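Example record used in the benchmark description.
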Amino acid sequence: MAEKKSENEWEQNLTFQFRTSKDFLKLLDDWRRKQENLPSRAQAIRLLVKAGIEAEKRPRK
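Model output (structure tokens):
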């Protein structure tokens, strides 16, 4: 079984770029503003991807 990665292990120095729409950025920025500590866009995307991956691992009802 894979070990759970700590928050720091998810942060790397690799660059990843993608194209997106203004609507996507608005959704992302709206989500960011609701967080206790305003994450950067990059950190917000990492958090959301990580949450999605971890949610997928949970048993479905």
